[in-house]
Amino acid sequence: MSKTRQLLNKVPEVTIYFWIIKCLCTTIGETMSDNLMGRFAVGGDNATPDQLQTALYKVAAVTVVVLIVTLGIQFKLKRYIPVVYWANIVVISVLGTQITDMFEGQGDVPNHMWTITIVSVTMLAAVFLAWWLVERTLSMHSIRTARREMFYWLAILTTFATGTAVGDLVAEKFSLGYLTTLSLFVAIIAVIAVVWKFTAVNGVLAFWLAYIMTRPLGASTGDWLSQQGNQGLNLGTTTTSYLFLGIIVALVVFLQIKKPDVTPPELVIADEVHHPHPHLPHPHLPHPHLPHGDGGGNLAPSES
Q1: Backbone angles phi, psi at 10, to 5 degrees
Q2: Which of 25-29, 65-69, 97-101 has the highest mean predicted lDDT (pLDDT)?
Q3: Residue 295 domain flag
Q4: Which residues make beta-bridge pairs with 66?
Q5: Fewer Cβ atoms within 10 A, N terminus or C terminus of the chain?
Q6: How far apart are alpha carbons 57 and 49 in whole angstroms?
């Protein structure tokens, strides 16, 4: 059964492990991006905003190359591999922050935050709309064709960029502070979870809403832990990044060994039943009840 299940979906099933690692990755995206930019900036800790911005362009270019390689590996795989999947999420998280930061600039107060938020939300909506129009499903239970996988990863990238923009807007433009912003998004995610648990809201919709909100949650967490001022604890981007990265590695190794997050086949089949695609191959599973012969080559009548 394990082998069959692995062939049905190339992304992890949504479990408590998924949400924990996702939140850790979003924090890494914020702190690792800032850390790399500071390391490569001319002048180091004393770098000017222009020097930081130049360093950001260079680091982002390297991140794009790394993402192309890791996504290439992901697309070539025939099944879900936790190490490869989560490596892509970490890199996308860093790139999503870098994309937003490139447009916001490196001043004390980022620029164009309203514009970037509106543009990123519009792009995210366009990706989901195109995905729905083509596939008639946004389900995360049946990412088993190259086209669905392409939409999935494009949606992931736009959610990270959108979440960074929204988090920066709330924390800095509205001057709520990192901890207050963190608490706000915790409350929003809690509301989504309660609505999903106790109402008939569509599970896929609830998933993507929560997924989008975890990005500003993680970004605010990263800023709160690493930054000085604005309610920050000033632990530094290096300490925060490698602490969270260590936890991610430990959890992913656990998933790689124990495989508790492989999608059950019935979820994939249910998605295909509700959204049939004649051109897509359906998984062949043995029928649980086969009629027995009567010894003479004839099939015996089934029992009621």
Answers
A1: -100, 5
A2: 65-69
A3: no
A4: none
A5: C
A6: 13
